[in-house]
């Protein structure tokens, strides 16, 4: 059992690694886009509960469908346009904005400048 009760960190001290995740559409392949610094990856009861910093330079993402779970985040810096392909909706995000998307939401992100966010990803009960 993990005895950690809390973590205090900021993104300038975090160790970032490349972000590898399941490719959209459940193809069984992996995509890589941006970098992530994970602070934790499970909840007290063992379910998926990720808290992390994520960053990327100006770029357009591959298709992304929030494969790990529902994602909520806070934009630390930068701006992005998020196309929600299932609904046709377009969401503009900038520093200071909060967002939340359900697992499986098909999207494409266009980052207009270096971008960083803090994210929380959760996926159900055990």
Automatic annotation (TrEMBL):
Classification via InterPro entries: RmlC-like_jellyroll (IPR014710), RmlC_Cupin_sf (IPR011051), UGlyAH_Cupin_dom (IPR008579)
Domain (S)-ureidoglycine aminohydrolase cupin: 70-117
Biological source species: Pseudonocardia eucalypti
SUPFAM superfamilies: RmlC-like cupins
Coiled-coil region(s): none
Stated name of the protein: (S)-ureidoglycine aminohydrolase cupin domain-containing protein
């Amino acid at each position: 059992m993990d005895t950690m009760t809390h973590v205090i960190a900021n993104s300038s001290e975090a160790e970032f690694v490349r972000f590898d995740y399941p490719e959209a559409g459940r193809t069984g392949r992996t995509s890589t886009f941006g970098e992530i610094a994970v602070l934790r990856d499970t909840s007290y009861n063992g379910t998926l509960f990720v808290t992390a910093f994520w960053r990327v330079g100006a770029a357009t993402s591959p298709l992304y469908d929030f494969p790990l779970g529902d994602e909520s985040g806070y934009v630390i810096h930068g701006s992005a346009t998020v196309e929600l392909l299932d609904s046709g909706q377009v969401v503009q995000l900038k520093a200071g904005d909060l967002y939340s998307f359900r697992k499986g939401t098909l999207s494409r992100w266009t980052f207009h400048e270096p971008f960083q966010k803090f994210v929380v990803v959760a996926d159900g009960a055990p």
